[in-house]
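Incident log, structure service

09:12 report received: a user says their structure output differs between two submissions of the same chain.
09:20 pulled the input from the user's history:
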Amino acid sequence: MNRQKRLLLALMGASVLCAKAEPRKPNVILIMADDLGYGDLSCYGATSFKTPNIDQLAAEGQRFTSGYCSASTCTPTRYSLLTGKYAFRTEGTGIAPPNGHLIIDQDTLTLPDLMKIAGYQTGVIGKWHLGLGEKGKGPDWNGELNPGPREIGFDYHFLLPTTNDRVPQVYVTNSRVLNLDPSDPLWVGDQKPSPDHPTGVSHRESLKMDWSHGHNATIHNGISRIGYYTGGQKARFRDEDLADKWVQESKAFIEKNQDHPFFLFYASHDIHVPRIPHERFQGVTPHGFRSDSIIQFDWTVGEIMKTLNRLNLRENTLIILCSDNGPVMDDGYQDEALEKLGEHKAAGPYKGGKYSLYEGGTRTPIITSWKGHIPAGVSEQIVCTIDLAASLAALTHTPVPSTACGDSKNVLDALLGKTGAKGRHSLIQQDNGGRGNLAYRSGDWKLTKHAKRSAKNTIVESPLAKIKVPQFQLFNLSTDPAEKTDLITEHPKEAQRLKQELQALIDAGHSR
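09:34 re-ran on a clean worker, output below:
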């Protein structure tokens, strides 16, 4: 940890220690699904399969109908979640490559930092995809993978370093690749290491899941990936076992820290491609491996709940469930997600999905549950994953410096379901890139800005198919939640107001 951050933590920690003694702070478990759409849970309208464990969370707490992630792809949403800052403000926060460096600057005061200041043990288990190693160098796969989670506030980590359609298929813990044999070093690159290196192109007939686009480099476990790697055979995992392993690690973290406050960020890989759930979940739904993976995700939530109940921690644990972006069908593999979709509406009533500025890209399930503290109900308040830094700081009575978490709003009362509580009034949404493609919701009005005049609709199309749209569009979400009718011609003053507000927020560099 650098000197500036250490000093800030020491000063703020001292202020917390000097404060009046309070009852034990609640544990916090943040559960993030991957590519889970608004309509992918039975408590949000899915009818052809059930998600009973998540439904129970929703029945006991607050289910948000205007819950958002901050971007329609994974890396920028995760960046914003941990920093409280819109990812478009920082260069290099798009989808991280296999050899990408840590994209969160170590000087940044993060959500896990704030929890540490409040006296929490902090852990992250699951998908990372925020890079490892120094800028200009990237990860040292055979040595210390620093900087990483420990340098930005996490005491413990057990990670998939990138995302599972990208190489390598190994676990990282204690800043090293787990079970790596020094005599079989791991090499990761973006170029074919040798002319005879097997790939999804050269050995396509050997694949147990074929690719549709882009995922045709190194083969592991019968599935070709993005990028190339060799070695590390003893360290490699089997895709089907990911969820089981992360449940095991999550239980161990909870058990180890049961006697003092803990913050666990459980970042599931379900339901991201390649969708290969454990064999016991394969075929349990009518929609193929995509919805089978949703059932597996629901099972992991149930296992965490069972652990809390067994340890008598349920009444002292706030659980927040969310997704990193909206749904996608064909995202690079031929897994029959489109062919078996049937009448299931992964994005619910909304247009678009992953990669999109439309509501289906960023309006996702958000559920908060804290037995005995959060009343059961459905909330229409606007809340976003970017708000968790400021909101959890408020929960733990931890001051946030004015220079930190610049776009994170304190919506704690809304998250706790308090009567009359208000969420956000406005929110910037983005796709994977920078400032070019943005959307801005203010009240019921929403403006979309497509710099390249095209957008992806990944619910009904391949991600390669583009739909031409005007550069600016205006929608009223109260009367047109599916964004079918562009009102920019009928309401030019409203459009101009939103354009000006959006530009002012961009220029300010912060919104809190």
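09:41 both user submissions now match this output. Likely a transient worker issue. Closing.
09:42 reviewer note: Residues 114 and 418 are 23 Å apart (CA to CA). The radius of gyration is 22 Å.
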